[in-house]
Amino acid sequence: MSTTTERTEGTRENRGGLRALYAGNAGSVLSRGLLAARSSTWVVVVSGFFEPVFFLLAMGYGLGTFVGDITLDTGQQISYPAYIAPALLAVSAMNGAVYDSTWNVFFKMHFGKLYQAMMSTSLGPLDVALGEISYALLRGVLYAAGFLTVMQVMGLNQSWTAVLTLPAVLLIAFGFASLGMAITSYMSTFQQMDWINIVMLPMFLFSATFYPLTVYPVPLQWLIQAMPLWHAVELVRNLTIGALDSGTALHVGYFVAMAGLGVILTTRRLRALFLD
Question: pLDDT by residue (tens digit) across 131-161?
């Protein structure tokens, strides 16, 4: 037993630079997540698709009958369902990505001891980070693709640029999943995990999801515009109505930076926890 341990440690010590962090086998971590989902949690995964649909029917076609059309900053008028549907699409991608990159990661880290087992093999912390983020990414995109189909059937996509929402949602989910996993790696109790919901709920309600940002005082607008969900909502909404401008590039850049920061923090944290 001691000989095996010495060999594992010696092999890891002989790897330097990037090889100490990445073995090029993140796919095995992703495959493990897919097998686990197929055998035990697929019902939970599928059920998450219906939440934005119910919100769209209740708020868009229920409350929307009293709201009427919404006038955008560009002067374009769209129906209330067409206004909130892109926001719900962005929220769906966020929820799918965050769920798997936070609660599932928390359980695997502190109860399943899964990452400790992975790190005892040739896998590096970057393999684990990319594998788990990719799994969360798939869930976010699955939700988004299903809801985008519902939007198309209901005639809520206002422009051909709506086809670009899928890669946009992929980027959004990547950003939320990578940063979500990074934050979760610093949490050790269920009480701390509740902070995630405390942050997500206000973002969901106030990020121009159900009404324009201009209804808020200017200082509050600045705060909301710093939040990732506002950028996600604006990016998806611009694509579905065909209102592409310089702000679209800003939203994309925001999530590129968010995803990069999340991957770096997650990799460093996993290495500090299980290798150093």
Answer: 888 877 777 777 778 888 888 888 888 888 8
219-254 burial code (b ≥16 CB/10 A, e <16): eeeeebeeebbbbbbbbbbbbbbebeeeebeebbeb
One-character DSSP codes across 96-163 = HHHHHHHHHHHHHHHTS-HHHHHHTTT--HHHHHHHHHHHHHHHHHHHHHHHHHHHHHTT---SGGGG
State the pTM of this model.
0.82
Report the C-alpha dihedral over residues 259, 115, 46, 63, rounded to 10 degrees.
Answer: -50
The closest of 172, 238, 183 to 208, measured between CA atoms, is: 238
- Whether the CB-CB separation of 155 and 168 falls below 8 Å is answered with no
Give the residue extent of every domain in the chain. Answer: 23-274
Question: What crossing angle do the helices spanning 228-241 and 190-206 adopt, rounded to 10°?
Answer: 40
Question: What does the alpha-carbon distance between residue 199 and residue 194 come to, in Å, rounded to a whole number?
Answer: 9
Tell me the DSSP string of 82-112: HHHHHHHHHHHHHHHHHHHHHHHHHHHHHTS
Bridge partners (DSSP) listed for residue 78: 70
Gap between the Cα atoms of 82 and 8, Å rounded? 56
The Cα 254–Cα 207 span in angstroms is 15
- 3-42 as b/e, with b when 16 or more CB fall inside 10 Å? eeeeeeeeebeeeeeeebbbbebbebbbebbeeebeeeee
